[in-house]
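ugh finaly. both done.
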Amino acid sequence: MEQKFRHSIKYTNEQQFTLAEIADSLLAQDKLVRYLPKIISDAIPGLTVDGVKISLIDAETGSLKEEFLVSLFLAFQDDLQSEVTDLVEGLTGMAIPEKYDTIVTLLVILVVLYGAKFVYSKFRGDRENPASINGDYNNVLNITADTLNISSDALDSAVRGAVHQQPQRDIIDAATRFFRPAKKGGGAPVIAGGQEISLGAVKEFPSEASMAVDSDTPIEPYPDVRIQILALDRQKRRVGWAGRFVDKEILSERLRMDLYPTVDLAPLSKAEVIRADVMVEFKEDKDGNLIPSRIHVVKVHSVEI
């Protein structure tokens, strides 16, 4: 059976959002809800989610607010465990009880916060503790588990299982797209399901620069530039690539090149030139001078074949 749930997200930044930033947030939601079927099926004995569909109802600019309708395609066993009978009956009934109104939003926020924990660990390691991200995750985890009448450990295990069943790039991409609008103008909290992703968590989420290169490496951002692709590897991101700036007044050298995890390889396989946001990594030579050593492609806007 198909059951529909409301889902809403509000970015509280005061700055006006670009169409690209709005598109990033919409794509993030589309990617994040795909984790829900496995999470719910694993966390709630006797309930299976066979599919999910998300539709945009409304998007308001200013402080960006997005309203969605999420359809879950549910099936359940006849011999339900007693502790989840009320939950399943509530989720599969004609009218969803009020306490489950925000359950999809809570689960989506739980996934993106777990994604933030994963991204932080991958790109920052154990050098620091992301206290705000961890705190927000634990808070939403406990509230969501209480709503579903299951243990926090069971829900946490289901989230981990769903995320790690998919390629790492999927959660990196979804979390990065989600946090990109939130980090605008110094960052602002995100409101969802009556809960808040705090400003601290938004600021802790690694910048796209730190995800591309080590934070101690000298780098220089070059937004919206044309890069000529001189060598490529259709299977790998960090080796086999080389390029140079089309505008040689910026830099004229042929440089090694790698691709940020969210860049799609497929459109680049036949491209001669890309228009992209990039960062150039510099290293010191023996005289202490900084020389360019590598181009990091952060975001591709278009390709020229």
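ok and the 2nd:
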Amino acid sequence: MTNAATGVPREPDSGARLSTLFAGVEPPFIDFDRQLSATALQWQAHGNDADFAEMSAVVSRVEPGRMYVIIGRIASAGEQLALAGLAYRDARAWLTNGAAGDTARVPARALAEVVSYFALSAAHGLANVTARLLALELRSRAILTSREKQSGGFAPFDPRDAGWLPINARTVDSLEAAAVHHQPSVTQLIAQVRDLIDDPDWARLVERRHTDFHRWRPQSIEGGVAPNSPWLEFDDYQVLAVRDGGRLVPDDHARLIAEAGHGLERLEAAMRSWIDLFAGARHDVLTYVLAKSMDNVEIDVRDE
């Protein structure tokens, strides 16, 4: 850094000289850590049955590959939830190791953002496995494809980004429209996604992500460049407020960690409820597929 007035190099703030993001201590486990770990493992454990689930679905007249992809994406989302939980625990360590100022603020904020990154990844998985479960049968698939044309009908192993729906109100509207003819076990799955996106704590996590990815992400250090104009407005002129060093008052890292944690709690609750409902919903969708495939089948039960 250089002092603009004198041209003399200035030593960077301590926050710019980090050698690691980790605090060097392990925070105590809390009940939420254990609950999240159990939920993440429950999702990942479905991966053990990918082949058998695929075989059962094909017997029910599901297009080959579709159930295998669903199970794989469930296992993947479980890992993403687990990684969000680990990042949350590592972020909390900066609240317990005694570090202060920029030394704690910069890495603590970074780890809170990692929480949000993996939480949003897992949440996208939640929405997309729900869409692909509905797309096992033709009626729901047609409704989804008409509303989400870029999806291409959610073909198995489709590598295009367009086949991956965002988790937002429009997507949930499409899921609800595609499930109107299904049993409550299926619509209850979608209700978990709806409840998540409508939750204020989750909305704050998403909004923070928008700042990080789509807007000006302010620095984390005292005296950084503030994301607002340095010009003072008067009736017929402007004045540039010049000072040595920036005007930024950074966000409190403890608040950012808590914000990420609250959003993660809402996600974990939604994923826990969803996976508990999944077996029943899968059964009902497969039953629907099999029944529709037999609409024009006549079974002769006469005695010879």
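summary for the 2nd one i guess: Residues 70 and 133 are 7 Å apart (CA to CA).
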